[in-house]
Structure formats: C-alpha cells, structure tokens
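re the bet — no i am not wrong, look at it urself. input seq straight from the record:
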Amino acid sequence: MRSWHSPARAAVLSLAAAWTTATALAQKPAPVEDVSSFPHRSPDEERKALHVPPGFEVQLVAAEPDIHKPLNLAFDDRGRLWITDTVEYPYPVKPGAKGRDTVKILSDFGPDGRARSISTFADGLNIPIGLLPLPSTTAALVHNIPDIYLMRDTDGDGRADSRDVLYGIFGHRDTHGMTNAFTWGIDGWVYACHGYANDSRVQGKDRKPIAMNSGNTYRMRPDGSHAEYVTHGQVNPFGLAFDPLGNLYSADCHSRPVYQLLRGAWYPSFGKPHDGLGFGPEMVDYDHGSTGIGGISYYAAEQFPEAYRGTVFVGNVVTNRINHDRIEWHGSTPKGIEQPDFVWSEDNWFRPVDIELGPDGALYVADFYNRIIGHYEVPLTHPGRDRTSGRVWRIVYKGGGQPAASAWKDWTKAAVAELVSALKDPNLAVRVSATNQLVERGGDEAASVLAGVLTGSAAGPVRSHALWALQRLGRLDDEQLSRTCRDERDRDLRVHTMKVSAERPELSAKLRGQVVARLKDSDAFVRRAAAEALGSHPDPAQIRPLLDLLQATTREDSHLLHVVRMALRDQLKERDSWKALASTRLTDRDRRCLADVSVGVHAEEAATFLMSYVRNNPVDSADLRRFGHHIARYGDADAVASIAAFAKELKGPPKERLELFQEIQQGADERTTPIDPGVRGLAAAVCRGWLDSKRDDQIGLAVQAARDFPLPELIPDLSRLAAGETAEAVRSEALHAIAAIDPRMALPLLRDLTVGSGSPIAVREAAAVALANLDRPEAQKAVLDALATAPEQLQSTIAAALARRSEGAASLLQTIESGKASPRILQERRVVIGLENAGIPELGKRIATLLKGLPPADQKLKDLFDRRRSAYASKPHDASRGARVFEKNCGICHQIEGKGARVGPQLDGIGSRGLDRLMEDILDPNRNVDQSFRVTNLALENGRVVSGLLLREEGEILILADAQGKEVRVPRSNVEERSTAQISPMPANMAEQIPEDDFRDLLDFLLRHREDKAPKP
C-alpha cells in the first residue's frame, strides 16, 4: 500500500475538499431540528438529497414497506445482510405481549445495490438492537428485551423455530441505550456495547456474572459459555469496529464520537470515577458538532480510493451526516484528524444509526429515517414520531482507477484451500468470514494447512489470521507461537502473537521470556500488545521490564503509556509481587511509577507501599489527596494511623491540608472506619478560620467540609454565617450544612428564616427546603404554616420539597383543600409529580376539583415564554457575557466545548435546538426528563431527606449531586428509604435565579453552539 502522504492521497483529499466547498455554496443541508418541519420523502427523493464526494454513489438497498426502522446491520458468511428493524421503539411491549419487531435477511443484490430478496428470520420481537449471524448462517445471536437469544432455523425453512436464552438479563429502562453492535473479533469472541442508563447483570453458562451500569463494552463467547468486561465507562456507546491489528474502536454519545478502546481501561461517563489510573486516553478532541453518534466503521478494504483506507466513518443522527476521520499515528497512539463530512443530507429525516463494511468493499448504512432525532428530545408520545419508514443505503465508489466491488461469495461452501486463500483478501470482513469458516468446519484438514501457512513466508495478513484460527481450534502449541514471536519480518504477526499470548490460559517460561523481550521491540504496537499480554499473566519478574518500558515511553504515545500502567498495576494485584518488591532495589523514579499505579490496587499491601512513599518522598498536593484517600480506604490499622499522623503534622497552605483531611475522611467513610479525632480537630480548626474569611471560595470549602465530616462543633459558626450579611449562596449552603449535621439544632433557625420576611428570597427558599427535608412533625408544621403568608415563589419551593415524602405530600394536599394555601401550587409540574409518587388516593379528581375555574397551568409558562422571546428579539444580548452566565449557573453540572462539569448532559451543539426549545429546557426543565437524570430521594434515619442526582456508589457511600452540582455523600447505613421521582435535578426557578438581561446573554451564547452549517471544507 502506498504512503498515507502519497500524491494520490493528496489529490483525492484535494478533490473532496473542492467538491465540498463547491457544493456548500450551491446547496445547504437542512437545519438541525428536534422535530423536522420538512415533509416525509420517498426513498428515491431522499437518495437525491444525500451528497457524497465525487466518484461515490449512494444506492438504495431496501426501504419501507419491505423493512421498517433498521437498528443494527450484520453480514453473514454467505454475503447476506441481516438487519434488526422495529415498529415498537421507543416503547417496549409489556411482559407477556408479542412484539411487532423482526430480524430480516436481505440477499440477491442487483447491480444497483437493491436487495431482490427480503425474508423474515424472526418476528414477534421487542426492540431487538443487537444482532450477529453465526458461521452456520442458520443461526444468530439476537438481543430481544430482556435477553440475548440464540435463534436457530432447525428445519431449513429460513425462519427461526428455536430460541434459547444465552445471556441476560439486560436492562431496558432506556430503550435507546440497550446492548448493541455485536461484532466478531478475529479472536472468536463477540464484542458488544452496553448502552446508556441501563443496569444489567449478565452471565453465561458458567454462572460468573458481570454487572454493568450505563455505558460499557463487553465480550461474550458465541456458545453462551462466558461473558466478561472489555472496558468500563463511556456514556452510550453505539457501534464497534476493528482494524486489521485488532484495535477496537467505538462510537459514543456525550463523551467523544470516536475512541480506540484499550481493554481494561475506564472512560468518562456522567459523574462516574475512574479506576485510580485516570481515564483511558482520547483519540479525538472534537465532537463533530453533536452528542448523538450511532454506528462506526473502520475502512479496511480497497474498493474505496487510497485516501479513505484506514480511516473511520461515524453516523451522526443529529446533524444528518456521516462524519469522516483520518488517523495520524504517534507510536501506537491514534490521533483523529477531522475530514470533510463523507455524507451530508438536505433531508433532516436522515438518521444514520449503523454503518457496516460489506464483503464487497462498500459501506452499508442503516437509516432510521425519522423526523425526530432520537429518544429524549421530545416526549415519547410526540405524534410526529415515525414508526414505519426506514432505509438501508449502499455507498460504493464508481470513479475510475479503483477495483470493482468484489463478487459475492458463499464462504459456507468454500473448500479449505479456498478459505485459506481468502485470508489474504484486502477486505477485513472477508478475512474474518474465512477465518470463522475455517474454525467452524475446517477440522484436521484446516489445522494441517494453517500450520504450514504459519511456517511459510506469505506476506500480508494471511499468517495473522492463520495464527488465530489455530488458536481457536486448540491446535496452536507453544513452539509455533514461539516461532512467530521471533519473526522480525512481519510486524503484524508479532502484534497478533502478543494478543494470542494474552488469551492463553498460561504462558510457558520460554514464551513468557519472549513476550518480555518484545517490550523492547522496535515497533510501538508490538510493545503495547506485549504489555497487555503480561498484564493478563502477572508475575513479579515482569515488574522490572514493565517499569523500564514505562520510563522509556514518551507522553505522545498515550495509549502505550496507559496500557503499560494497567499492566504494571495488574502485576501488583498479586501478593507475591509485594514480597518481591520488598527485596528489590528501586530508584526514586521506580517508586514514583509504582505509587502512581498502586492507587488502582485495592489491597492493604498497596496502601502500605503508598504510606511509605508519602512519608519518604516529596508528593504534590493532587497525588497526596489520592494517595491519602486510598490509604484510608484500603490500608490496615497501621497504615490508617500513619496517614492520620502524617496529615496532622503536614505543613502547608490551609486549603491543601483541608482537602487532604477530606480525602482521608471520605476513604474512612467508604470502609465505615472512624476517622482519627486529631484529624477531625485539625479540620475543624481550619474550617473555623475560613468561616470568617472574606473569600467565598474558602467559606464554601469550609462549609462543605463541616457538612461532610460532619463537624457539629462548628454549628454556632455556621449559624452566624447563615444569619449574617454574607452572599445569599453562602448563607444557603450554611443552612443546609447545619441541617445535615444536626437536624434538631437546625430547626429553630430554619423556622425563623422561613417564616420571617427580612431575609432575601433565596435564603428563605434554602431554609424552607432544609426545613421540609427534616422528617419531624414540628418541621412539617412550620413549613405548612409558612404557606399561608409566603410569596408565590417560596410557596412553590416549599410545596415541591414537601411532596418528596409521602407524609409531606398528603399534608400538603390537605392544607390546600382546607384553604390554607393556594391551589395554584398544584399547577407546578414538580409538585404534581411528587404527589403522584406518593400514591395519594383519587389524586386526579381532587386536583381537578381544586383547580376548577383557574387558568390553565401552562398559561403562566406561555406568558413567560412570550415575554422572554419578545425581549430576546427586541433587546440587546451578548454571547461573551452569556459565556460567563453559563459558567456561573450551568457549568456546575453541564459541559460545553470541554468547559464545565460532566454531571448532566453535555451541551455541545445545543444551539441546534432553536430558541423556543432552549427556553423550554431552561424555564421548564421538568417537561421532558430523561430517565438517567431523575431525582433520587434518600430518607435518612436522623429524619433528614437528601435529594439529588445519584452519581455512583463507592464502598458504603452513596454519592449524589445536588441542584448546585456539588457532591453529597451519604452512608448507605443511614438510609431508611430510597425513591426516584420523575423530576429534573435542574432548578425549576431559573427564571428567578437568572436576571432577564443575563438570560438573554445566555440564550445568545447557547444558540451559537449549533451544527447546521454546510459541510466542512
């Protein structure tokens, strides 16, 4: 293959760029809209609206009424295209009911790409996203809520008459994030994504379950014997693809559109931690203007021009495009270089949700054709949602000088010699089919021929595939593997030899030594694969060579660095490794590297090593915090006492000391171990000094620490702060801290501030919420009494807080019915949801009686929207000022352009929603609440209620994010009752919190973050 920087490549890219620029001037893509205002187009009309670079052609493979809405695509070894399609989405059918969804098989493709045969393999299904036909081509793995089934055609009629559960149970709370993208690895495993917001406990026949929450990737044996993690994290991975070296790529929503995944690594998700080593490295630092990515394909064929080979395509359902990324390699680390969009559409019903490389070298695209983007932009009941239209497209290169599309081949009938010959095919999809067939039915003949191939001198990928086929057949011995390990001619073969070594149940001493030697290979991919293999087979003797590789690797090769760090950590999971280290001569640099990865080892030995390191080496404040947390969480009694003593003796800035105290406290909480009283005393002393500070950041940190420890001795100081003349936000935080530390002592102050009219409304609201969250009769009476005289804004806040608990909800309704509070409170969505959750009898009838004669609830909001819309159109606004408004009010939970927190949804491209939808999202956040962002209410044994977005659970601690995006840590043992409400954690009174001038600036800022421009030149 010619160089990536060849003249041919440059010419093609230049042509594509010129075409993109010219087309952009002539035509514009349809604007991005949550609900398209454009009419439904026929398949032929839509095809004319799809634009591709010069020389490419878009062909229709299938469309309604032959298929409905396609979800996943997969080719079998006969060259047939299997699809899952749905009518039911987004509502799963009720248990016991029969669904209307299907698995269909498309075949007999004409010269124009059209499938002339479409048959139904399985019907009666329930949103079947995952799909993979097996080498027999009479069976397939099919996800059908709530399990993965082996569906087989046993009588030869082309329909599945046998259905057996292989893996389950998979969560389906959120139907746009279920398990998907079943993908063959050359290793014989089936790789898959686990989608957003769902919880699944999955096991095979070996009864060894894995528990997955939200985004993960995993792999499973196709016979149902075993499933295991591949990676942890990501938000909603939807699409997987391999390259010829066995590197795995994913498409993800809300983190990055493309990742090259490292086995065992952790990746960013909403509010979730990593494994102590940091998140796996990124491949791209851009988002393609969207957080809705579906489907990915690595182009490993030769039908497309050279400039497109070895590049990545991802589906962008928000912007109606297929994005294109070139890969620039830095050692073994890929860096994505954004290219002109490969496909852009004038029709914004085009929703590319899956992309597959066909055995003919063309790309096949599942088009979920819909006027609505996806799942949560509008209510699920929106009447504009299309349920029956769907298309599959074929994109093929028709320009001159390129090979024609490969002839279709039924590999299930090919002889062994023909299958072996196919292992040199330039198309990776063909090679995988041939490999699977050799394993499926090649037997002794295949093993004998493949052994000869392995010892031969064939160039290209033949020997790599032969190696894996022998491994899967159980016919690869250590001597064969040792020879390929020594092969200096074939870099790819050495990489795959290392990967095979990682899969072996054990390594012989000879082979282990050869794998260790490959840590010094001239090629970074070989070094990375060798480190991964050693991570799978830990041994104390491997620590030294892994340390040497880690220290010799530059930061530019971030993927190699992370793999070596994971491998080094995995050596330290063995107790013998710590014994060996005790007698090993280590340099300061060695110890620093070991300390860095020891945080990922949840064992007393790691904590003991870290304590020794902290005591004898300079450590920066960030590392000191994570080391201190780990020691307090996992150390033995001596280590815990030592870190406490160290913290007490530590000199330095008060902020760093307090942060260390907090980390030690949190680590102790997670293992339910009391913290050293001396540490508590020092933390209290620092906090007391800062509560009198003139700086809000210092006060805020002290208040949070007082609450989290907790430090009851600071209640008098907090009370003075809450009743003083400081900033409203500071006073509010002090009130909540007092309530968290000692509800009984907090009650009088909270009652006085709630009822009294001398304090700012924000402070009165904070006091009212804290008071309502005290599960005490006197507290409930106080807030109910305040309803009669409170202003409307405060009434709404009190009512919403009361409605979180069943007792409070019932009392609230009775108070309104007795005429002591305005029934207009019942027009608040967040209040009604709380009452509904409380299960109050005849609630609908009682509310209707109370609201009779009042203007509709939405009239008030409509008037607010009209005023704000008119003001935005007629008054000035400034995006630069809006950026500061976002940072202050929104960045505490949301991220945009990499700035802000990842607690709530990422907001890149949000401007595409338009002015009206943005105002709706900000001013009425409870209108459409995604299931992953519902409020969790925790009733504690001390009579307090804590509410917020549940982020994660660490040991014995539940961690929530409150309305300000701050973490609240609650011991599991303190929780008496736990419930979830269909309410957004986002404050419902943003109209009051953000002044109108600032609100216009914020809208300007958000509206500028959109992706409705023409294709990138």
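see?? Residues 742-854 form one domain. told u. also The chain is about 40% helix and 20% strand. so pay up
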